[in-house]
Design brief:
IstB-like ATP-binding domain-containing protein; 63 residues; IstB_ATP-bd; globular
């Protein structure tokens, strides 16, 4: 992931979709220096769009 982000950094747009809050990304990426490097490239010059609604198909009742 780091290599891909490095290639795209400051030249292309990249969209990430996650079911985790940004506060948990570092831990979910394994922590440490590698997670720091990945997040540096993701968070720099980024826009965060957070939806609070539950969009999971698993929680909908079948009618």
């Amino acid at each position: 992931m780091l290599e891909l982000l490095e290639l795209r950094y400051d030249t292309h747009s990249t969209i990430f979709a996650s079911q985790f809050l940004p506060e948990g990304w570092h831990q979910n990426l394994g922590g440490g220096a590698l997670a720091d490097a990945i997040l540096d490239r993701i968070i720099a010059n980024s826009y965060l769009i957070h939806t609070k609604e539950n969009h999971s198909m698993r929680t909908r009742e079948n009618k």
